[in-house]
Every structure is written in structure tokens, then in C-alpha cells.
Amino acid sequence: MTTSLPPDSAIFNVRVSVFQRSAGRSAVAAAAYRSASRLTDERIGERFDYRKKPCRDAFIIAPPGAPTWAYDREELWNRVERAERRRDAVVAREVLITIPRDIPEEDRRAFIEQAVAPYVAAGAIADIAYHCPRAADGEEQPHFHVMLSTRALDPSPESGFARTRNAALTAMFESGGRHGGGERGEALKAERERIAALMNDFLARAGSVRRADHRSNAARGLHDREPEPRIGEGRKRAVLRRRRHDRRTAAVSAMRQARIVANALTATEEEIMQTNPARQAKGGIRPRTKMDFKARLLRKRFPDLLSVEGWAGSLHFVDTSDPSFTRIATKDGGHVEVRNRIARVYGQRGQADALAAAIEAAGDVDAVERLEQLRTLQRRGSGIRQRRKPDGIPALPAAEVESLADRWRSRGYHRITEAPDGVWIEIGRCRLQDLGDELRVHGPVASDAAVRAMVEKAAAEWAGEVEVWGDQAFADQIWLEAQRQGITVYDQATGELYHPSEEVRARYDRDRSRLKAEGEEIEEIKRRKAIASLLLEAASGNAEALTRLRTNDRDLADFVTLHLDDEQRGRLVGKPEADVVAALADFRSYGRAARAAEDERRKAGPRVVGYVVSNEHGAVELETEDLSEAYEYKDVLDAEGRSAAIGTAYSDGSTSFEAAPRRPVPHPDAETHERRPT
């Protein structure tokens, strides 16, 4: 449904008028027109037929015990006319009430009856006509007309009405002057307020977020919202008949289209402010709309809080992006957080404390906790704390706040709030307030995580030198963490280097010794992993890796070259590195044993590894490990008339023809070898 109303507003239109005989008004004619019926005015002898006019419903409500003629529309209003004798008599009173569209059709009859009930209780007869024409936006425009008799019922006069006007009914609409009852217009204002409250009750029952407001735009602070020019029913019908606007309806249509666009823009900005509360304190939508938005957020979280609209004007933002957590920043530098029915207040004393107390009084929290600011850490030489005024409210440019927040996020912190009084970082139970060159700690204690975060900022942004102010326990925490991160700590009170307590100094020395031992252990693990990796590369056949392994660890090199054969080296390459690291000591033992065995073999002299056959020119024609094969080959050469010799090959690579080995006994099935080419 497209409407020019804001998303939280319902249409409210209540107009009260009178039918005066001197103006040519006839109560009978008006009743016929509104009820879409045919009635005859006996006083002037004229019949009014409006049966072709649209009317959803028409009915009469009369006080208990009313005569039957009170429910006959024609007789009722003719008797009303007869009861008035003056030419300028007020023959009837009318109330026009528009029904909000969000009230469903099935509830509208009940709404109408409850709206007119006080008039009937005051003695008036109410003739009600319910209309629902099409509005300019193409949607329905439900409303109802209530015509009220101005005199109470009285059977004594011929007309059936009392000789005097109904004072109780008049007092509901008129006040001041001769009417009494307070200032002029107060009675009508109270009646409008009653009807608005009834509308809101029906809207709430229908599940609508819209609410009616009886006050004028000026009273609601909407000074920039111009009233629309009045458009009568006749002008509306003429526009529909011509299917084009005249000057006035075109102006109204343009105003409504502009409001529709403004509403869409406001809705978009409110979505942004919902997820980024800092935008509530920056440019954008109108200040009044921002206040209404903050009031809605506040009312949604704390439905029993009194004077929500009053509080909204003193707030920078209301953060309700987390369903279980509410964060509020006040304009005087205070902050309120509500989680698990506990309210925590920190920052400047003032509005935040009062708001937290009001929330507690409303029963929305069980306790209020104050996080005092008793500790600071600042860049050395900044002098911020010394220049600080006792009641001064910090104020940082928006660009600087955004830059500080981005730096915290880059260091891995995400529970961050950007506010005009700095960047707030939530770490455990304490809150850090970053003012650029100063960090303030709000809360009972500073956790190790908070201290670490503060020193990290000092290392990144303050050139490694800080001044600490606070109790000794806090200063000792800062000093201890600063030693780990290479930061120099000074005492803010004296300007000298800070000297920690003996206990903290001893703790630091213990930590340093432990870290040194852990570092050495880590280095040893790294060295083992590196040598294991080199061993696997050498086993895979990498000659360069084998050379480096022999230079760094000869035992492991001997393990690869002397202890393992090719098949074993292939299986070793497929082993996980962790398994190799665990077995390095055993591998070294195997390598040493293999080297010792090799040395023993070398001391015993070279061993026979095979035989060679040379021709008459001394060239080797056959190398074999089988002596029989060598003699068979020699026999072939001798048979060809070539002088052949058999030599012995040794493990050191030498060959000797001096002492030929004896011919082995031939096997009976031995075959004669063919001569092989040289």
C-alpha cells in the first residue's frame, strides 16, 4: 500500500460541524444524502432522493428506552426540525471521522460504535453513515458521518425532544466563553484525543505499527510539513469525471508524491542507521525524524520506560542491532549498555546515569553497574591528562574517529563503537576509550587481553614510548606486557622510567627463562625437520642433497649410501617426514655401523668380483662373474687362432692377468658359447 504518510503514522481526520437553518441547511436533506436514501422534509415540503449515492452502511443508535420513531430516519429528523423554531437554529451537529486503513473491515463497525458511545450516553441520537470511496491513490478511504440530535429525548413536547439544548453533549465539543469548561477549544481537543486513543487501540489489536496523533503538525514539531489545500467532495468527483487534475488537485498530488519519495528515503536511511548506529548522530534525515526513530528504538527495547520522546532528544544513537544487547550514547558523553537485564553505565556522568535509573525504575533491568575511569595510558609527551578539565567532554572530529576505529579493526578487534567522544572498544568487563594519544580504561579491572590491546596500540602508533597512570597493579600489568612487545614505560606522575614491583620483576625473569628454553626447543625441532627433509631428498637420488647431507651429518649420509640398497631407499622416500624425524637417531647408528663394516672390508684387501677375457691385442671382449663362461669364451677365441687371456677383476677396480684362475670342471650339459663381438 503506497501512502504519503510516514510508516509509523495513521491518518487522523476528525471534523465537527453544525447544521444551521439560517445557512439554508436541512437536517432531513443531510440525513438523506449521507445515508443514500429518499426522505421528505415536511417543514419545507421537499423530497430528497439520494438512493444512487454510494453508502456502505447506515444505522441509528439511540439511548436505551428510546421510542420506535427514533429509529425511523425520516420521522426522526422531521421531529428534530419541528423542535427548532428559530430561523438561526442549530438543528443538528455532525462529526466526520476517518478510519485508518489498517483497521480491518470486520472491526470497523465496532470502532464506529465505540466512537459514538459517549454521545449516545449523553442523550443524543446518532445517525451513522459509513462510506468507503476510492481515494486519490486508488485505495479505499473509509470514514463515517455521525449526525447528532442537539436535544435530549423528552416525551412531553409534541416533537419528543426537550425544550432546552443538551448541555452534556455541547460540553463535549465547545468550551470557553459562555460555554465555560476551560479555555476555548479545550473540549474539542480532548474529544479528538479520545478518538485518537481509540484508533490506536484498534490499530494495536490489528497488529499495525501505525499510530494516530490528534495534535497539529506544529504541536508535533513538524514545522516543515505543509498542510494540504482542502479538496471537497465535489472537486474530487469532477476530477474523476474529467480524468485530469485541476490546479489545486495537481498541487495536492505533487505534495503527496514528494512525501512518498521522502518516506522511501527516510526508510532507507533508517535501515542504514539500524545497522550503523553512528549514522544517527551524523547528517542525513531531518533532526525531528531522527528523534522519532530513536524514540521508536528506545520504546521497542524498553516498552515501560516513561517519557521516551523526552529521552530521545538527549541521545546520540540507540544501537539495537543485536537482539540481546542494547547500547545507548548520550549527547553529554555518557554511555549505557544493557545485556542480560544488567545496565552498565560509563563515560561522563549525567544523562546516561539518569536514563539507566529510569530504565531500572521501569523494571526493564535488575541492576545498574557504574564503570569508573581510574586508569589511563598515553603517548609519552602528549600531556593530555595534565590538560584535561575535570568535567570536560572529549570531542574528536568524525574523520579521526573513523580512522581510529579502522586501525582497531585492522588489529583484529570488532566490538567497536564510534562516538563523538572517541572510539570505544569492549574487552571483557572493561571498556577502552581511544582518544588518539590517550587510552582511558573504564571498569573495575583491566584484563590481560585489554592490557595487551593497549600496548599493541602503543607499539603501532606511539613510537614505542608510553606514560602510565593508575594503581600499581595496573601499571605493573602495562610494564610486564610492554617488555614482551619492546615498549618503554614511564611513570606519568614523575616522568621517570617506571620501576615495577619486585614480584613482577621476578615473574618477568621467570617468563624470559622459560621462553628462552622454549625457543631453543623450537629451534631444535626445526633443525631436525630440516635434516629429515634433506635425508629424504638424498634418498630420492638428489646428488646435491647427498653432498649437503654428507657435509652436515656424515652418519646419515653413510646410512643412505652404505646401509640402504636401491629398494630400501625407494621405500624410505615414501615415509612421512614426522616418522623420519623420530628415527634419525637409529638411522645414524645404522650409518655408523655400515661405515665400520666398509672400513673392515677395505683393510682386508680387494676381493674378486669377476673375470675378463682379452684378445690378442689386449682388448677386453668379455666381462663376467662366471669363470666357466670366461673359459668357454677363451676356447672359442683359441679355436679361431687368436691368443686369448683370462684376467681377474677386483673390488677396487683393478684387473690382473698374472695368475690365471684354474678352469672349473665343466658341466656335462654345458653349451658352447658363440663368439661375442668386441
From TrEMBL:
Q: Which domain of life is it from?
A: Bacteria
Large polyvalent protein-associated domain mapped to chain residues: 415-491
Basic residues bias: start-end ranges: 237-246
Protein keywords? Conjugation
Q: Which InterPro entries match?
A: LPD7, MobA_MobL
> Known Gene3D superfamilies for this protein?
3.30.930.30
Q: What are the boundaries of the region Disordered? A: 214-246, 647-678
Record-annotated MobA/MobL protein domain positions: 25-235
Basic and acidic residues bias spans: 214-236, 666-678
Q: Does the keyword Transmembrane apply?
A: no
Per UniProt, what is one Pfam family of this protein? MobA_MobL
Signal peptide span: none
Assigned protein family: Belongs to the MobA/MobL family.
What name appears for this protein in its UniProt entry? MobA/MobL family protein
